[in-house]
Design a protein that fits this description.
Layout lengths: L2 H43 L8 H10 L11 H11 L4 H27 L7 H12 L15 H18 L6 H20 L1 H18 L4 H23 L2 H19 L4 H4 L9 H22 L3 H23 L17 H14 L10 H18 L6 H5 L3 H9 L3 H7 L6 H20 L13 E5 L4 E5 L1 H16 L7 E4 L5 H7 L2 E2 L12 H9 L4 H6 L1 E4 L10 H6 L3 H4 E8 L12 E7 L2 H16 L1
Parallel strand pairs: 3-4, 3-5
Antiparallel strand pairs: 1-2, 5-7, 6-7
Helix pairs in contact: 1-4, 1-5, 1-13, 1-19, 2-3, 2-21, 4-5, 4-6, 5-19, 6-7, 6-15, 7-8, 7-9, 8-15, 9-10, 10-22, 12-13, 12-14, 12-19, 13-19, 14-17, 15-17
Amino acid sequence: MNEIEKSGVIQEDIHGGRMIAIAQHVIALLCLISTAVIVAWLWKYSAYGLDFTDDSFYLIWMENPYLYKFSTTQFGFIYHWLYILLDGDIASLRRFNILTTLFLAWWFAYFFLSWLAPEAQTRRLSLYAATAGLATSALILFDSWLPTPNYNGLALHALFITGIGVVLADRSHHLRSVIGWLLIGLGGWLAFMAKPSTAFALAIALFIYLLGSKKISLRLLLLSICTAVALLLISALFIDGSVDAFARRIQLGIKYGQHLNGNNTIMQILRIDNFRFRVKDQLIAAAIAAIGLAGIWGIITGKPRGAFLAIAISICLLSLIAALASGAIHGTIGLGEFQGLSIFGVMLIAAVASFRFGGRGTLKKISSAQWSMAALFISMPYVYALGTNRNYWVNGSWAGIFILLAFVTLLGPIARARRSWAFALPLALCTQAVAAVLLQTGLEQPPRQPQPLRLNDTITEVGPRRSPLVLSSGFASYITDSVRIAQESGFPPGTPVIDLSGHSPGILFALGAKSIGQPWTLGGWPGTFEYAKASLDQVSCDEVAAAWLLLEPNGPNSISTELISALGPNFSAGYQKVGDWQTAKGAAGFDRRGGQEFYKPTNPDAGREACRALRTGSAE
């Protein structure tokens, strides 16, 4: 080769290298823009919609958790001070929850990828962009549009904090390691406050991991345990004033919960549920994998045409996300109950890319510590879902980011060799696209709401703090009618109410009522009557007798008025109907509009004495 030809090759290599560098920066910026678009999208719709059951249950729990004498989850106490700080503004609570979920997932992904390939930390922009993209998979938590802070979100946050701690912790006593062990303790405490079943499963999974990874240090492990126990003791004192009372709270929560759930055996809790992954789902996963792999090839090939391909794919993915967020696309992809499993398509990208671009012996370049951590992450969705009544695959998909990062472990050798995570940016963009598609389903088909949120057009003030939300006209009328009639009947805010409709905690919240017994007197379950009575038996006779009643005659989840007689007061002689209104179509998930009636006690003194006599007789 003569000098002129050599010069041409060198110039071509320099030109190609510059093109790849430019492409990597462009794709990184597109990835960050995609994250911002998704956040802005959710920020806007945080002020839209209200579920009269679960959503409202969370709000009532947060508003005054100290009313309730038993509970298995303590998320209401964790978020109570946030509720006060934000003055009960529902949109602000939701935005806080969304941002907390994203940023915890982002920090988790950042620390993990930095640990997986320390050599790649010098390319900060690519690392930040890739981890931001991967973190959006945590927002799948909101694919059923229940963005109000709740126990599911708190459990996921606990796992993120624990995950960060696991990455940072080692056997040394350096500050970074000590912080990691402290975070493990903090995460364990939060997991217990969210879901005790998740906390116990997490403890077992962590113990097995620490033994297998040879990371365990008895002194530092004791630090984690002491952190969790100390926080739990402080919580017990703040919540109930003593450890015994706190233990009794949880014990009663488990005992009374059996009225609704039955006597679940250990094998029923430690179950493996079935799932469906149809041909349609498989084709979508394959398409996601093909797109992501083409983008990764475009960067790794080092050729200008490859760079153009990677940029083109990234622009197309950003355009899809922007079209969904802007409302240009109104339909849903129709993946059904197991839609969260579509994230497997992104995992497939990582698996195939590792073998296709990592070269021979890629798996041998992954250390035993990295394999151990990947195994721990794979167990996390099960740890997260354990104890729920829902299908574990459906619930566990909300923690799918852990399995995604476990598969990203396979890309570690490539990142170390290339000293950059830039090649993984198309994978991050595919993650964002999948998250956006699933979020679109929640916004277009919000459970127990009558229409897509984008069609809501009526601003309504909701709850004792008069928090503005954009609702459907039917939901708005339901709330304004009930509030108006209650006010006309002389109902004072803060008055106890017993909800016998079985599905209207949202109306109690709108009225500013005190929901006694439980935040949601749940109807429609085999043991509903027994559960409601057990809950209200924990309430003083003064409040039982002073409580107004919300009824829905012949409603699908109605609780019999015999419950009132079982508590002491005489329903037929001791209450007066003061008003009625129609429910809204779609409220609590029912298309049929029902009639609800509001009653006030006419002789609270007689009701109180009857309640006391009944309880005294039972005690004897």
